[in-house]
Specification:
It contains 16 helices and 13 strands. By secondary structure, it is of the alpha/beta class. Helix 7 runs parallel beside helix 8 (202-214) and helix 13 (313-344) packs across helix 16. The radius of gyration is 22 Å and the shape is globular. The termini are far apart.
């Protein structure tokens, strides 16, 4: 019998965060804690369906006017318009001047991929495989792969995390932007930087924008946590809106997985901000062609949930309250973890736990300390030391803090 035509295909390594979850599930230890995967959990450690989402799902189910016909290629119009509106703000000059457009995508990843495909084909000319794409060091692991698989050949990193002070390396970041070739593409985390949880301040964002404007660098925002980070939609969108005010053309990939809890619905949006309406419409015409050969038409359910919620003042207010509930729990876990580590006298400083924001915290634990946490304590976290703050609960907090204390004390 002939050998398989797939015999030469190598086995790809598993995706780290999903492998971590699989290992957690197989662990029979009663003390086990999952601080890996990026999803919200209640204080009981359970997934949470937002009450407003449940309400809107029931409304959709009872709406006899709806059907399962195809959506437009670029997506549900009311979803796209409202998604862009919450990113840019009700009083955005870009919206008022009709120089924005958007594409419904399969989650934030899909929005990044459509943007990357377009930039590779058309940015600053055409067929720009050699244009440098800069991602922060560290960054969400998918950023590199999305742009590489879109055809970019030159993926570089810019300084971001200062391990010594456990905070932002602003000077290193600015220096890298100064040295970057003009028209390079920079992937920027709009808020709640993944994996570090460390964001620039408004004054630091202004410095970043000034260099990018002078060097003709293209901002591509990844906004996966608006509202979820601080509890305020406006605060979490500050950087994006400031770049609008400074006259930038840019892309902004939005995800509604975290702030709506719609992880498996894959609800994303790519907002395009251009110089004028004509430029934006030409960009969208090319993006339509890319979508047509990628997923052809987007799914409607998740988009309808978001659009219905954002279109109704009452539902919108209820959603913001739900989001604040999640954000407040994360902030509480940060405060409690820091206080416990400091009470234990854990070596080092732990102020970064509360200075960081959003779902993730870069603890500063090294790979050997992480290995100890996983193997000896059955606490599952990424090798980088990143933890999901939502995995902490009032029931496991003391155990996790004591385990971190032991890891840091025993292993250098």
């Amino acid at each position: 019998m002939a050998a398989s035509i797939f015999a030469a295909v190598p086995r790809a390594p598993p995706v780290a965060v999903f492998k971590l979850t699989a290992d957690f599930r197989e662990d029979g230890d009663a003390r086990k804690v999952n601080l890996g995967v990026g999803a919200y959990r209640t204080d009981e450690g359970k997934p949470w369906v937002l009450p407003v989402v449940k309400k809107v799902e029931q409304m959709i189910a009872n709406d006899n006017s709806l059907n399962h016909e195809y959506l437009p290629i670029l997506g549900l119009p009311e979803f796209r318009a409202n998604a862009s509106r919450i990113a840019l703000g009700d009083d955005s000059p870009a919206i008022k001047e009709n120089r924005i457009g958007s594409v419904q995508a399969l989650g934030g990843t899909g929005a990044l991929r459509i943007g990357a495909e377009f930039l590779r084909r058309w940015y600053n000319g055409n067929n720009n495989t050699a244009t440098p794409v800069y991602v922060s060091s560290p960054t969400w692991e998918n950023h590199n792969s999305v742009f590489m698989d879109a055809g970019f050949k030159d993926i570089r990193t810019y300084h971001y995390w200062d391990a010594a002070k456990r905070g932002l390396d602003l000077q290193g970041l600015l220096n890298d932007m100064e040295k970057a070739p003009e028209f390079s593409i920079f992937i920027l985390h709009a808020c709640a930087h993944n994996p570090t949880g460390t964001d620039p301040t408004p004054d630091q964002w202004k410095q970043i924008a000034a260099v990018m404007k002078r060097r003709f660098l293209f901002p591509f925002f990844d906004s996966a946590y608006q509202g979820f980070a601080s509890g305020s939609l406006d605060k979490d969108a500050w950087a994006v809106r400031y770049f609008v005010s400074e006259g930038f053309e840019f892309f902004c990939a939005q995800s509604f997985s975290k702030n709506f809890g719609l992880y498996n619905e894959r609800v994303g949006n790519l907002t395009v901000v251009g110089k004028d309406a004509d430029n934006v419409q030409r960009v969208l015409s090319q993006m339509e062609k890319i979508v047509r050969t990628t997923w052809s038409n987007p799914p409607s359910q998740g988009a309808r949930i978001v659009a219905t919620t954002l279109s109704s003042p009452q539902l919108f207010a209820e959603w913001k309250d739900n989001v604040k509930t999640m954000a407040d729990r994360v902030l509480l876990m940060r405060s409690d973890l820091r206080s416990r580590l400091e009470s234990l006298g854990t070596p080092g400083t732990w102020s970064h736990i509360t200075e960081q924001i959003g779902m993730f915290s870069f603890t500063g634990l090294n790979p050997k300390q992480v290995e100890y946490m996983v193997k000896e304590k059955h606490i599952y976290l990424m090798a980088s030391g990143r933890i999901n703050m939502c995995g902490l609960t009032t029931k496991n907090l003391d155990y996790v803090a004591q385990s971190i204390h032991e890891a840091v004390t025993k292993i250098q």
